Batch of 3 targets.
Target 1
Amino acid sequence: MFESLPPGASGAAGSEKIAAACGCMQGKVDAMNGAQLAEVTRQTVQEYQAYKRNPSYQPTLPLSLMNTFKSCARQVAATH
């Protein structure tokens, strides 16, 4: 997923940026429970595929991690 997002000012996402974005997302992941995992995965994949087709796509599915991912990736790009 990181390779599909626009790079930050310093270029492509390196391991430091990826680790920072994953850390940013951790709270959202921790809030999930096992019963939600299949639906979270389905919605996230669905929105990631929509994003790949149209990078201006705005995530709307309630359990998808794409909105969190995009937000964290923007935050990391702005600070690294």
Target 2
Amino acid sequence: MAQGHIFPKQQIEIVQVLEPKGYGTAGKELLPVMAKNLSLQEGDPLVGKSLKYTVFNQALQDHIKPLEPGARFLADLEERDRPDSQYGPDRNINQIYVDGKPVSQKQGFGGGGWKGRSLEDDLALERMKNRSIEGQSAMDQVGLVLTGKNPIENDDMGLDDETWNRILGKYWQAVEKSLDNFLAQPTKTQAAKATTPTTAKADQRPPGGPQKAATPATVSKDQPPNPDPVKHVGDLLTRANKIGVNAAQVAEFLGVEEVKNVGDLNKAWATIQTKAAEAGKELFG
């Protein structure tokens, strides 16, 4: 969120320090304060009015909490407009000065998060964390169903075949993506090898001596006939979904009642691609 309007070193008078309020899921608190801005120019409609300010920074909260009504100090203020709301603007106290020195050493304006995040920014980060946790919980639940001692069938959960296959497809897609992300990260050993220069050993053979036969590790190998085999039914459904073929169509293309009964997954994938291409030609000529 963009920085609001900053008003540096304003003379503030405390009217009332309110009770702290929690926000987010990490036990954070904000401190509401009723105060007057004594630095407003004469004729300003807010002169003498008690306004509500919010304090996010912990060091500033600790400084303000013991203050009595009437206490005064210099502070950097911020106002953020809220054009889409009947409330606002939001007013924050971002810094306090005592004997000319700032109370908080945290850099930046704009609220109480790291690097000056506002309340809205912090809440947005909390929502992102929650979505991540919810996604992991959903994966765990499906994983328990699949790996339990007594696997649960889709009928036992009141799901039809198409819904169940769609959930399985999403699950295996998430698992595959997680594994890809994990494998893409170099291990400590790989990182060490990447940063350590290698020196080729000098040729120990006498001049004119016989050449040493290549070891199996140095002999090039032919590429496997299928470098990207289908791993499981979920992988098959994920691939089919990417080319616009749903689970019901997969079963129709393969001539089976349930996709989980498919035998040769690689052959099935080839058939799906062929059938999908033919269907596209019929549709678009």
Target 3
Amino acid sequence: MSTTTRSAFTLRPHEATGSWASDDRRHAESARQLLTELETVCEEVLNRWPLPHGQTVWNAEAEFPEFYALVRKRDRLCDSVRIFAAMAVEGFLNYYGVVRLGEEAFNTHFERMGLIPKLRALLLVCDSVSVSASDPLVRLLEQVAKGRNALVHPKAKEFPGYIPAEDRPGVPIPGAARQAVEDMDSFFDEFVTLVPASKHLAPPGAKGA
């Protein structure tokens, strides 16, 4: 047996001492703050609607440029909230894995996993907990991942003919952003409920943290 290719591994406790750097808390804070800003901008869009409410604004970029810029700001904020919420969840999973396993072991065996396999593997290895695909924690992570993937892996869609603007596919604003933050916080709460010893590692602001 070669002593250079094998070594004993010791799982670190939840209360391990050390120094780590992670942006998960900052991303969670950004998601919540941007949602607050989005809510304000959505109200402003409604208040500044240039036509009678209920009527679609056509060619807004040319006819109502300031209003168009405001709408685009609203859309950017909604996208940003959803992305930051997903980044916070993924960042927390990576942080948790590095704290419990060490950076070298985590990067070698877990870092490149998809979010859901990573969650299930980390819980199995670090906490001796096996969660099924239907577990609430997994379902929440699926929701977060789905929203992120829709934004960072944009797809084109073909239609059989002209589709009016009001009938084109999209996400509700600010509803999609609200849901993303709710899913993010619920994920942290559910994780802490499942692994109470992780409470001090979860981003602050969630109900369980």
